[in-house]
Structures are given as structure tokens and as C-alpha cells.
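Predict the 3D structure for this chain.
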Amino acid sequence: MSHSAKMIVDKDFVIGRVDDRLYGSFIEHLGRAVYGGIFEPGHPTADERGFRRDVLDLVRKLRVPIVRYPGGNFVSGYDWKDGIGPVENRPRRLDLAWRTVEPNLFGLNEFADWSKAAATDVMWAINLGTQGIDDARNVVEYANHPSGSYWSDLRISHGYKAPHNIKTWCLGNEMDGPWQIGRKTADEYGRAAVEAAKVMKWVDPSIEVVACGSSALGMPTFAEWEATVLDHTYEHVDFLSLHQYYGNRENDTPTFLARSVQMEEFIRSVAAICDYVKAKKRSKKKMYLSFDEWNVWFHSNDADKKIEPWQIAPPQLEDVYTMEDALVVGCMLISLLKNSDRVRMACLAQLVNVIAPIMTENGGAAWAQTIYYPYLHASLYGRGQALVPLVQSPKYDTKEITDVPYLESVAVHNEENGEITIFAVNRSLDDALLFEADLRSFGDCSVIEHLVLENADLKAVNTSADPERVAPRAGGGAAADGSKVTALLNKASWNVIRLRTV
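Done. Predicted structure below.
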């Protein structure tokens, strides 16, 4: 049995141009993200700087535009000066965020080098937990000022004559969280953030800065925090951050697959708060959103409780992702695209080993997890203009979420390439979905390819021993007749239908 669903898109009904930074990611000094992840001197594939080439290959395939670093909770106790200068002189520190020892073998300059090797840009997070505006302006000067000042000349003495030109900066991390080192009230944070933003932009007026929203939608501080922080910072910051993770602890897959419906409500709520502050201030400026932590995260919670403290780079937050997790990540990517008029940046948290699309073994293999593939497809084919999707789909209800469409879909028009890409998830666990896309304003179209990610076992995972158990295949049956596209979307499947406009 199969249901049918339809989507209409028009080239003139544009959500917005997708900012490349929507496909960003995140590396924190946490677990094996850095040590054993992107950086492992002595690994068979390591280059002369200790960067794992096998990991770099997987990252470059993703075309990651920007990577947030060095945290995360870690940053609220981090002194960036510990990570610069001769490695042998760098201190070992206790990292209180994750109860590990940080050897500081890898810091700002190494990350800037790695980012160049990975063909990505840096989004640097400053410490507004234990540090303040002085360190904020100094790190911008060290990273971005050409020469002739104390910090820029120090960078040059460390072997980096050219400035790193880091253009995107986060003003702290999750500052309303009780777990955060240096947690602040909204007024305390708003005051610190606006003063940091001012001096950072005085050092380098070309940078953009991100203020912290609430740590999650479920925080008791949510909404009031955003409004108060923006009251202080509105004219001095460029983005407000959102963070959200989803899990399936109850093994309720229909509800899990519907979580992206809540994600969209969350985005709309935060946009509304931004617009309220804009109206209150009679401002002409629109506040954009940086969804700089998002993913599925729940598998590793129990294992993490058993890790002995004060190790260097223990295996923390190493979720092994399933086929159903890939469907949720696909739906979340579609949600980001459907809101790309306001969400200009996003960071899949994180990139390697720690709740990540890429996994490694120390000294061994690197491979793509299930969630790698929807992220890859969106990054490669989701550039251009996101189009308003008018979707007619049968729906289902869960205990928590009602009116969930079986079809989750959006289309992106890349005019330069003469291509349209349709991303579509069939949430049904029982039935295929007869899908029809009406592209009436585009004239004749032809199918380039129809990629499908599916597995009969929704709990199937990729491992070093079986790295392609869950992997996309070409040869989905999408067909185009003029401007009408039809396809059978198999149950519980992620689909990418790439079309050429004639």
C-alpha cells in the first residue's frame, strides 16, 4: 500500500538565498574531536603537522564552509593564550567542563592551519565565562591585526606573518546553563557581550559576532533570556544563537522522526523574539540566527557517565548513529533550509568522533557514519535559492506532536548550474509514498539522478568493519515529464532528486 503526496514550487516564490554557512560544523576540545580526530601525529595518514589526511579527505568531501571552535562548554574555562607559542612551553590544564586534562598541543594557529587544509573558515568562540572584554579584544588583535602591535607581532613571532582574518566570532557559549563555567544572568551576559562586541569590532570592523541565545528550548530562561540579551546587544551583534539536540530514548520512532516539526517552531519563536526587540527599539536592522549546535545526541549518555575523570582525550560523546538518526538529521537539514531566510549559519555538532558524522580509531581507520550522507547531500546540492514548498501530504499524530506530514520536503534552485534539487524524507515506517513535484514555472526538466538512503533495519549502523552498511545508492526511480516530477519514496527513506532545467 502507498499514500500520495504533492509539492508545488515556483521559481519566484523564494524563501531566501542559502548562505553557504548553513552547512557549518563544530570542533570542540572534547573527547577525541581534536586529539585522535582531526589531529593525531604518528597516525599512518598524518601529515607533517599531525593532521589526519583520512579525516581531511572526508571533511573536504562535505565542503564544510565554516567550523566553530574551540567550544562549546570547554571555551568558558579556556585561556586561548595557553594554545599559542612553542608547544613545549604550553601548560597542561584541568578542563572542568568535561573533567579531562587539556595538553594544549593544538590551539589557535594549529586550528587556522587545519581549517585551510580542510578548505573551511574559522568561527572562533571567545571565553565570556572566566574571561571578559580584554581577552576578547586581544584574541581578535592576535588573529586579525596585520602587524605593529603587541599581539599581532606576537603572532608573527610564532611564525604567522599573515593575519588569519577570522571573520565570525561567538560571544561565549550557553551562558544561561547551570553547567556553564561563569554562568550569567541575562543582564550580566548582555552587558558583557555588548562590551566585548564593541571592542572586538573596534579592533576589526569587518567581523561578525554571534550573541548567545538560551542553551535549549526547554530552559526555564528561554524567551526572556533572548529578549533581555538582545535589549543590550541588538545594534552591536549580527546573529543570535540557537542550540537543540534530539534523541530517541523511549524508542518511539514516529515521535523521533517528527522532532524537526518542533525545531521549526523553535526557529520561528526565536525569530519572533528578535522582531519584538526590533520593533521595541524602532530599529531598521534584521537580526539573523546562527543555529550553531544541532544534531541527534543520546546514544552515548550512559557510557559517558562511566568514564574516569582527568584523562587526555577519552572517548566521550561517541554516539554511533543509526539509519533512523540519518532520517532525523535529514529532516533537520530540510527545516534549516525552510527557514534559511533567518537562519544564515548552522553548525552540525560536532564534526569528528564527538556526536559526529565522521568516526575514527586511534591509529586506525576513519569512516562515515549514517548521518554523514544527508549532510553531504545538503551541502553539495543545497546551495542556491531555497523555494517555498507548498506540500500536500497525509499526516499522522504521536503522543506529543500532532499533524506530522509523512512527506518532509524542500527544493533548492541553483540558477548558475541550471539545477533544482529536491530533498525529501518519507517518515512513514510502513508505506511508500507516491510523490509528485509540480515545477510549473521551470518548464521542461530532466532527472540527473535520484539518490536514496534507506535500510530495512532502522537501527543499522556503520562501523570500521562494515563502513558502508548504510550508504546512499543512485537509481531511485524519479522521472520527469515536462515540469512534473514523480517518484516513489520508499518507507523511512531520505531522497535527493537532482534535476536539470532545460
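The chain has two domains: 2-10+387-501, 19-381.
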